[in-house]
TrEMBL record:
Species of origin: Eisenbergiella porci
Superkingdom: Bacteria
Pfam hit, one: DUF3048_C
InterPro entries: DUF3048_C (IPR035328), DUF3048_N (IPR021416), YerB-like_sf (IPR023158)
The protein, known as: DUF3048 domain-containing protein
Taxonomic lineage of the native organism: Bacteria, Bacillati, Bacillota, Clostridia, Lachnospirales
Domain DUF3048: residue ranges: 3-126, 177-278
Length: 293
């Protein structure tokens, strides 16, 4: 929602996941590679289990402030997750000195952390900063030998994950989210203007956009949602890189395995080296997606 924008430090994220939540808006999760030196990351909100499963694809330390306790506390408290959480209900082993509230915004949109404080608690909890033994990188990247392999794929210059209407229930529509390709990068927009980083003032850009279509359902009367993050059911994926779209399918076999993206010929889809946005698309609202050449 608008009150949480702009975020701070988000420009440093290498990968950003975006997914619908209750209220039919979206939340994002950034994955940071060189995070230890970041002075301020925010604004940090509560966890949903499907974001945790996405973090597990990358063997990441997972940081959050609160959670939908009835649906995610068992996972967060398990030894499957290197979890950094505030001292909130449902957390067995909180990190007491990571998160702080700023004074220039109202709660709950004002929680920040620093890489330095996160690192202290990673060491306190004994979490490894090395990948686990069976770790597999999620992405395959283009090299100089195959730079033109997608030249005959369809052109797409604007990507509307929730369509252009502002009253849809798909999560993206109400924040008016879209990406526009300028010949080099995909520029991110929301709420009728550029999506910027509070620290730098720069508009967020990326080199690849992925629409990953997932089974979704409403869990309860509070509109808490669930999304299928695993399976070999051939659900669609659309990968946008260098102004092209590659259609394919995705599969994922376990918590510690990443989702695999294959093109229509069964080959791994290759990305442009650089930043990546992954938008979880509720399959029931697939027809809302709009692509503009």
């Amino acid at each position: 929602m608008r009150a949480s924008c702009p975020q701070t430090g988000i420009e440093k994220a290498s990968i950003i996941y975006k997914a619908p939540v209750e209220g039919r808006i979206t939340r994002l999760m950034g994955l940071f590679e060189d995070w230890e030196s970041i002075e301020k990351i925010g604004y940090i909100r509560s966890s949903r289990d499907y974001f945790v499963y996405c973090a597990l694809e990358h063997d990441a330390v997972y940081c959050h402030f609160g959670q939908a306790t009835m649906y995610v506390d068992a996972l967060l408290n398990s030894d499957r997750v290197d979890n950094i959480s505030a001292a909130v209900a449902g957390i067995d082993h909180p990190a007491y000195d990571v998160f702080r509230r700023t004074t220039d915004r109202r709660a709950p949109h004002n929680v920040v952390a620093s890489g330095k404080d996160i690192l202290k608690n990673v060491e306190l909890f004994g979490y490894s900063l090395e990948y686990h033994d069976t770790f597999q990188p999620k992405f395959t990247f283009l090299s100089s030998h195959d730079a033109d392999i997608y030249k005959n794929m369809p052109d797409v210059n604007i990507i509307y994950p929730g369509g252009q209407a502002s009253d849809g229930a798909n999560g993206y529509s109400r924040i008016q989210a879209y990406f526009q390709y300028d010949g080099e990068k995909y520029y991110r927009y929301q709420y009728g203007g550029p999506h910027i980083d509070e620290v730098t003032g720069n508009q967020l850009t990326c080199d690849n956009v992925i629409l990953q279509y997932c089974y979704g359902e409403v869990r309860d009367e509070n509109d808490y949602l669930a999304f299928g993050c695993h399976g070999d059911n051939g659900l669609p994926v659309q990968v946008f890189t260098q102004g092209k779209v590659i259609n394919g399918t995705w599969s994922r076999y376990s918590d510690n395995d990443p989702a695999v993206y294959l093109d229509e010929a069964g080959n791994p889809i290759k990305l442009t080296p650089g930043k990546i946005w992954i938008c979880i698309i509720w399959a029931d609202y697939a027809e809302d997606v709009e692509l503009v050449k």
